[in-house]
Amino acid sequence: MPVAIITGASKGLGRALAEALAARGWDLVLDARTPAVLKETAATLEAYGTRVTALPGDVTDAGHRAGLVAAARRLGGVDLLVSNASALGAEPLVRLEELPPAGLRRALEVNVVAALGLVQEALPLLRAARAGAVLTVSSDAAAEAYETWGGYGASKAALDQLAAVLGAEEPGLRVWAVDPGDMATDLYAAAVPDDDGPRPDPVDVVPALLRLLDERPASGRYGAPALLEGPR
């Protein structure tokens, strides 16, 4: 069975994708910072009959990243690496003049440095896979100038560039940066707590990610809405 590592997998888009892959028979290595929530997620996914290794921890910890890859190796390798864990830099978001440098550093460490560190750790297994792929979760804030989204957007723009270069350097892999669009997630609620407008459920975005896995388009940056609406 194929094996996926998914960070930030206890809720939101990470959990929704994990459940879709479990339903397809994938084995999973899951990361999140909250042990109890991650344990509950793992129990739900094991009901599909798949093997699930749930490792709570912080992706900025090199030892934790090594543990995720070691767990995947025990399951058979790494066919898909999903960097979904994210940090905002400030909760709620603030204008750049108020953004704490420590918050920006945290966003960069989680969203960029840790994502690259995990790729580096998993790269030998990804290269050895029959169809190895890396999927990084981006944001429209990486490409558009939204007030208060500067620090987070800058970190996601940096992640997009890392994904683009990785795709050029590793032609044997597929490397996709995906902007999922608006979603009702805890991350967005923390970013803009006063905005209670309706937003799509992360489950509704998962078919876009599955389309990438099914069709394996060229490495690059993709928008989930276009993947959901485009011809098949």
Can you put this structure into words, describing what you see?
- It contains eight helices and seven strands; from the N terminus they run βαβαβαβαβαβααβα.
- By secondary structure, the protein is of the alpha/beta class.
- It has one domain: Rossmann fold.
- β2, α2 (35-46) and β3 form a beta-alpha-beta unit.
- The relative contact order is 0.14.
Mean pLDDT across all amino acids: 96
CATH level 3 topology: Rossmann fold
Number-wise, the strands total: 7
For the largest beta-sheet, the strand count, sense and barrel status come to: 7 strands, parallel
Number of helices: 8
Structural class: alpha/beta
Give the low-confidence spans: none
Work out the strand percent. Answer: 5-15%
Helix content: 40-55%
Strand order of the largest sheet: 3-2-1-4-5-6-7
- The CATH architecture would be 3-Layer(aba) Sandwich
Order of helices and strands: EHEHEHEHEHEHHEH
| The CATH fourth-level homologous superfamily | NAD(P)-binding Rossmann-like Domain
The 3D shape can be described as globular
Rg from Cα: 17 Å
CATH class placement: Alpha Beta
- From the N-terminal CA to the C-terminal CA, the straight-line distance is 26 Å
Domain count? 1
